Amino acid sequence: MASAAVLFALGACTQPEVRFHAPGDYPDRLSAWGVLQARGDRLVLGRDVTPYDVNTPLFMDHALKLRTIWMPTGATGAFRDHARYELPVGTVLSKTFFYPGSGDVAQAVRGWDGDVAGLDPGAVRLVETRLLVRQDSGWEALPYVWRGDDAHLSVGGAIERFDLAVDGGTAPLDYVVPTRNECASCHATDAARELLPLGIRTRQLNRGYHGADANQLDAWRDRGLMSGLPHPSGWPRNADWLVGEATTEHLARSYLDANCGHCHNPESVIDTTGLWLDYQAHPLRRMGACKPPIAAGRGTGGRPYSIVPGQPDASILTFRMAATHPSERMPELGRTLVDRRAVDIVARWVASLPGTCS
């Protein structure tokens, strides 16, 4: 008879089967989905669950993230254009947020290669896993909060306070899980108010995965996950934010695209602001140069224009990125801390812009 240790090892290596759940029947425990399970000193992905990464991540208080996608057997996504992929009913996207157990979190973010094989649940602080589930009626958002060796469905709200070691100092963090309505405030960005994944687009997915030379979109096509993808020549691509080997302009535009552009774009429900920060060929005025705010209240910081070329300290854009008060900061949700590196890069980009405001 096999020993208990051998049986445990065999069980730890067995991938769980993913089980899809209909609306009104969502399980309390994340493990019931089979997408991701904690087993001893490892996280195990479900069968046919594919991890992926994005070029420029959304900043969320320095959290590290593990992203995955799963589609039902035989189902295939379809390329519509570089900003819109159609994913089939039954698709489950997951994003797991965690922090290092010790050490500087900014260094940990730069060192995280996305490889789940090297992620020990006992050595990190697992916080939550968010699911986006494609139902017949559209996408639904489900936040699960980790307690022990499983995560539980949450209604949202503050869950704990802990201190982060970041950039040589200590930052207290009140970690807040979004409610389903708050999820919609970022993910429902078009006029129809339809929940949509933010990172599933060519500009973000056009990259390798944790050190692999192969493009992950090519891998998705080869595995039958995506049809209709054009030849990769000329694909748009955001800057690889963690590597940082790009011009200041490309890094700044990529960051604004990933962190602001899902709301600030011509197709958004807030297009009346006239401030477009998605990575398209917009006139500089549309990107905020010498543009007065429509309605920002104290969010202007007493500054007259979104961007004053050559003067980042006089620009609303950099003021709001560096602010932490809820009525001043941007984005309004998803962060309470400041991404100092991003503020510095965007400030250098603004400082390089030509022109003056009359």
Brief descriptors of the model:
disordered N terminus; 358 residues; single chain; 3-stranded mixed beta sheet; 6-stranded antiparallel beta sheet; alpha+beta
Structure in words:
It is a single chain. This protein is of the alpha+beta class. It has two domains: 235 residues, no CATH class; 113 residues, no CATH class. A six-stranded antiparallel sheet has the order 3-4-7-8-9-10, covered by helices on one side. A three-stranded mixed sheet has the order 6-5-13. Strands 1-2 form a two-stranded antiparallel sheet. A hairpin with a 2-residue loop joins strand 1 and strand 2. Helix 6 crosses helix 8.
Topology of this structure?
Blueprint lengths: L3 H10 L22 E4 L2 E4 L4 E3 L11 E7 L6 E5 L2 E3 L5 E9 L4 H7 L12 E12 L2 E10 L2 E4 L3 E10 L2 E9 L2 H8 L14 H4 L10 H7 L3 E2 L20 H12 L56 H7 L17 H13 L6
Parallel strand pairs: 5-13
Antiparallel strand pairs: 1-2, 3-4, 4-7, 5-6, 7-8, 8-9, 9-10, 11-12
Helix pairs in contact: 6-8
**Strand residue percentage:** 15-25%
N-to-C order of helices and strands: HEEEEEEEHEEEEEHHHEHHH
The SS-based structural class is alpha+beta
Number of discrete domains: 2
- The helix content, as a percent range, equals 10-25%
Task: Tell me the span between the first and last alpha carbons.
Answer: 84 Å
Global mean pLDDT: 86
Radius of gyration: 21 Å
Largest sheet: 6 strands, antiparallel
What coarse outline follows from CA principal-axis ratios?
globular
